[in-house]
């Protein structure tokens, strides 16, 4: 990738030519301020306002793209360079194709797709820019007065709720340049682990339930139906991961699959998916970060941190609660099946993948994120019903028989059925009780 400058000093000014992208990483411990001095620019599809200061936190990785020309200033410690090579033309062409399908859906003279706009799914290995392209496509859609549904099936790096979940949100305004999309009224299902392969059957059950909830939304609201659905997936593409992609395409009834980067996956999907599904192959941007497992862990911690504490632009003030053991039931979804050879002859093994079972309260729960179920007693529906939200277990006192949890609200909702997750978060803030 050709670059025009690389720098990390405190004040840096960049002149961007047509179709150039300024890429930077906030590399120090302090924030970095971005300002558009002249021209026009966007960050992952969100318009950057002239002379407004955008403050990015440490670790942020950003691309400021211009279709025309722009003068951009960065203040703070940032590794930055300008690249003249980006796939943005191809990404906007994809958006134009989606927009064309929305127009057809909106046109009552066309019989076949009336009322239902495109359903696109983005697939590819990890770190190819799937989440970023989803954000760009959602932004371009709302900038044309559309209101699509964004679905995130990535349980490892979910951008709607905590890690270990899948979910959907209705997008009706562009993403904030720094904080991304508003997460109001999301539909969130708790899967409880970072790898879909940990419990394939449960993952598929949740895919089905979420796809039904999304379809109901697209039928309920005409504008949403026409705007369509944009689906981000996780980077697990081998073996069971490939099967999960195919299942997701079927359950969400997608009509377009955009494969980022990997040609082999593109070829395989062409053979597997039905002919009416259009499959496109797109290059990844040279700016996309290849993240180590350490960086991935950090970004997951930041996602949980954001869930409880918000962002610089929108801070939350969570509370801590002591919960006596007798006021809470902890459950787990999915247990080991009894091996066939241990069952009486002729008996079929039961499907334990989504079985809801009590989980003993013990110090093992410390630092675990637990989901809040809307049910008031142990029922099998817990496994496939959206959750209220999450708490983090800060302490488990086996002598006093109580646990201390961090909750985003100043009230801990009843009923108190907490669902175990494997996700851990070390909260080092002092929070009021
Ligand atoms: N053009 C770009 N320039 C600089 N950074 C970028 C660019 N595009 C994406 N990034 C950054 O690269 C990182 C990875 O991108 P993204 O999350 O979109 O990849 P992904 O394929 O969804 O990854 P995964 O499947 O692992 O979740 C993010 O931090 C994102 O901000």
From TrEMBL:
Location of this chain's protein in the cell: Nucleus
Listed GO MF terms: ATP binding; polynucleotide 5'-hydroxyl-kinase activity
Pfam families named among the record's database cross-references: Clp1 (PF06807), CLP1_N (PF16573), CLP1_P (PF16575)
The Clp1 P-loop domain, residue ranges: 124-310
Limits of the Clp1 N-terminal domain: 15-103
Main location: nucleus
One GO cellular component, as annotated: mRNA cleavage factor complex
Record's keyword annotation contains Nucleus: yes
Membrane-traversing stretches: none
A biological process from GO: mRNA 3'-end processing
Keyword terms of this UniProt record: ATP-binding, mRNA processing, Nucleotide-binding, Nucleus
Record: residues binding ATP: 21, 61, 127-132
Residues of the Clp1 C-terminal domain: 317-427
UniProt keyword Acyltransferase present: no
InterPro entries named in the record: Clp1, Clp1/Grc3, Clp1_C, Clp1_C_sf, Clp1_N, Clp1_N_sf, CLP1_P, P-loop_NTPase
UniProt cross-references to CDD domains, sorted A to Z: SIMIBI
Family designation: Belongs to the Clp1 family. Clp1 subfamily.
Known function: Required for endonucleolytic cleavage during polyadenylation-dependent pre-mRNA 3'-end formation.
UniProt cross-references to HAMAP family, sorted A to Z: Clp1
Name the record gives this protein: Protein CLP1 homolog
Organism: Mesorhabditis belari
């Amino acid at each position: 990738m050709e670059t025009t400058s690389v720098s990390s000093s405190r004040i840096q000014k960049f002149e961007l030519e047509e179709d150039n992208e300024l890429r930077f990483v906030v590399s120090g411990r302090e924030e970095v301020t971005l300002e558009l001095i002249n021209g026009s620019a966007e960050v992952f599809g969100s318009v950057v306002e002239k002379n407004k200061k955008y403050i990015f936190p440490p670790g942020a990785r950003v691309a400021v793209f211009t279709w025309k020309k722009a003068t951009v200033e960065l203040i703070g410690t940032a590794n930055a360079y300008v690249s003249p090579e980006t796939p943005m033309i191809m990404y906007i062409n994809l958006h134009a194709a989606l927009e064309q399908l929305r127009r057809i859906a909106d046109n009552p003279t066309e019989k076949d797709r009336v009322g239902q706009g495109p359903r696109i799914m983005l697939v590819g290995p990890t770190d190819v820019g799937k989440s970023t392209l989803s954000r760009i496509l959602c932004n371009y859609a709302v900038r044309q007065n559309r209101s699509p549904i964004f679905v995130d099936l990535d349980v490892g790096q979910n951008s709607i709720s905590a890690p270990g979940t899948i979910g959907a949100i209705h997008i009706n305004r562009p993403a904030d340049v720094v904080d991304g999309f508003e997460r109001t009224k999301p539909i969130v299902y708790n899967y409880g682990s970072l790898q879909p392969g940990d419990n394939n059957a449960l993952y598929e059950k949740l895919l089905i339930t979420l796809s039904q909830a999304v379809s109901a939304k697209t039928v309920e609201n005409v504008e949403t139906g026409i705007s369509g659905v944009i689906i981000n997936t996780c980077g697990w593409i081998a073996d069971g991961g490939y099967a999960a992609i195919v299942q997701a395409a079927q359950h969400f009834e997608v009509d377009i699959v955009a494969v980022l980067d990997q040609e082999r996956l593109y070829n395989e999907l062409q053979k597997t998916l039905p002919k009416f599904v259009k499959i496109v192959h797109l290059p990844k941007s040279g700016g996309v970060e290849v993240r180590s497992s350490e960086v991935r862990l950090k970004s997951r911690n930041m996602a949980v941190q954001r869930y409880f504490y918000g962002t610089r632009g929108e801070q939350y003030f969570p509370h801590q609660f002591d919960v006596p053991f007798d006021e809470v039931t902890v459950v787990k979804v999915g247990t080991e099946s009894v091996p066939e050879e241990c069952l009486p002859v002729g008996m079929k093994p039961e499907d334990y993948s989504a079985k809801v079972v009590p989980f003993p309260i013990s110090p093992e729960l410390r630092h675990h994120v637990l989901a809040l179920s809307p049910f008031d007693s142990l029922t099998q529906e817990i496994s496939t019903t959206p959750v209220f939200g999450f708490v983090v277990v800060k302490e488990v006192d086996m002598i006093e028989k109580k646990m201390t949890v961090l909750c985003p609200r100043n009230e801990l909702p009843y009923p108190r059925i907490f669902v175990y997750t494997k996700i851990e978060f070390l909260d080092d803030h002092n929070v009021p009780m």
